[in-house]
């Protein structure tokens, strides 16, 4: 039996509110994000989608979103696994930069290449930058060459897929309902993989904050319904358009 996968992007963060590129910078949810996480939990509860296990990144906006949502669903007690492989894409030298200013400085084409192209990474972050993570203890066991200086979506897919196969797939194969609480771009990587979306088409896909996306999978781990199903489809459409328009 194959279980159910639920992808949940963290709620609005303090830097989403300020319109700053975030990446691996460990910012918290703002009040709106906490409310979105509660709403995410309510949607899970109303739909009867009760996670048996949760996988999160090692960033607090995803961790807190999962805790708030699971508290609402009375599933705060389920096993938790965390990995840097579920982190947001590392935004390189753009981390901490204002999206609107970046758009104005570099123009629409370059801005969108950095934000949404499959294989163009942003410029690398420098070791001394206040927004770098080279000395962060949570990545201390990563070999230096595995610590990103910047990532494009392709890089995210390469580092996220081992986690998919090694940690998430076994839970699904065991028939569990698996919650993955992560980020706009790490979840785009999983959706690209699940729905076999082309390198070109993935640039148009945006994941809204705080709205659970449910996938029921067949025995080959292919979605029964392409694109899955947002538990609040109308809100998801509107919120995804808002993500697409950031910087404008
Ligand atoms: O700043 C970021 O880390 C991400 C997600 O908030 O931004 P974008 O949607 O522009 O890729």
Molecular structure report:
The chain has 248 residues and is an alpha/beta fold. The chain has one domain: 3-Layer(aba) Sandwich (Rossmann fold). It is built from seven helices and six strands, in the order E-H-H-E-H-E-H-H-E-H-E-E-H. The chain has a six-stranded mixed beta sheet. Helix 2 crosses helix 3. The longest helix is centred in the middle third of the chain and has 21 residues. It is globular, with a radius of gyration of 17 Å. It starts with a strand and ends with a helix. The model has no long low-confidence stretch (mean pLDDT 97). The structure holds 2-phosphoglyceric acid. 2-phosphoglyceric acid binds next to helix 6.
List the helices and strands and how they pair.
Blueprint: E1 4-9, H1 14-18, H2 31-47, E2 53-56, H3 60-72, E3 80-82, H4 99-116, H5 153-173, E4 177-182, H6 184-194, E5 213-216, E6 229-230, H7 233-244
Parallel strand pairs: 1-4, 2-3, 2-4
Antiparallel strand pairs: 1-5, 5-6
Helix pairs in contact: 2-3, 5-6
At a glance:
The protein is α/β, with parallel strands linked by helices.
- The Cα radius of gyration reads 17 Å
- Low-confidence segments, ≥5 residues, pLDDT <50? none
- Secondary structure category: alpha/beta
Tell me, rounded to a whole number, the average pLDDT.
97
- Number of separate structural domains: 1
**Small molecules in complex:** 2-phosphoglyceric acid
Helix content: 25-40%
Fold-level CATH name: Rossmann fold
Count of β-strands: 6
Return the CATH architecture: 3-Layer(aba) Sandwich
Shape: globular
Termini Cα gap: 45 Å
The number of helical elements comes to 7
| Fourth-level CATH superfamily | Phosphoglycerate mutase-like
CATH class: Alpha Beta
Main beta-sheet strand count, sense and barrel state: 6 strands, mixed
Approximately how much beta-strand content do the residues carry? 5-15%
- Written as H for each helix and E for each strand, in order along the chain, the element string is EHHEHEHHEHEEH
